[in-house]
Amino acid sequence: MNISPCHVYGPLLLAILLTGCSGQESGQATESTAAVMAAQTASTPSTPAGTVAEPDASHRAAPEMHDEPAPQAAMSAAQPAPTGTAPPSPEESVAPPAAQANQPDQASLARQAEPALKPAANAAAGTDKQNAMATLASPHATPQQLAHAAMASHAITQASTVHPPRATSQVTHASTVLNAQSAKAQKFASLMTRFHRPAALARYDTLVAPPPTMTTMSLKMGGVGISNFDDVARVNFALKTSDSDWTNNYLDPRDTREFGCGLIGDCLFWMQTGDRTPVYYAMHHEQRYAIFWDQNKAIWDLRLAVQDP
Known about the structure:
This protein is an alpha+beta fold. The protein is built from seven helices and eight strands; from the N terminus they run αααααααββββββββ. Residues about 45-55, about 125-135 and about 145-165 have low confidence and may be disordered.
């Protein structure tokens, strides 16, 4: 049987043609698919180096269930760390300074401060000599002055009748004593003009009740009563009269004592707390005074205690 070349090569050529067409189509499809993937890659942001790209949502596994964080950890994460010291509570109040004991030797402080003291605002007008003469002419000073005059007169009389040769010496001595007493009284009167008169004790000065002995003590002639209102501390002060120099005195807590105020009815009071400004007053006899701790000034101070009617 004779097979012609057409019958042999025809199917072969057809198969070759079909294979070439399918390869061309697959190449075009491959090229189009690569172009689409390149376009998607260009539009999607690139993942930084060192990081792993997140898988697609379709292939992502379901999230695992974890326990909630502890309350303390959550609070510490929510609240910022404290900076500095917490401000004090408005309910907390600063305690006032407590009463403290002052210097025992108040007399030396008073003597050193005398020359620098200025005349008090409530002192009587006039020179020191006029004030001294007014003090000597007061009813309180008259008995002392008359006593010295009587002594001088008696000495002169005795000298002229009994001992005439000694009359001159006795008169000179009596005159010297009288002049010395007068000079001392003048000096004290001059110093008194530099001291203030204490104000009356007010309610806002101190909330402490007066000691019981303050209202029951009976004052003697020429004395002053002074009470220490504090419950804990002893207070020191100095007093000076017309016939004595500065002397140290003190009062224990809640104590009341009587002090002599001299012959003319007035005496001087000095008190200093630490290195603060001192207080100095002129006191009158047969009066009661209160020493208390002034919390606003942080010093000991003196007031005239008003008596109940």
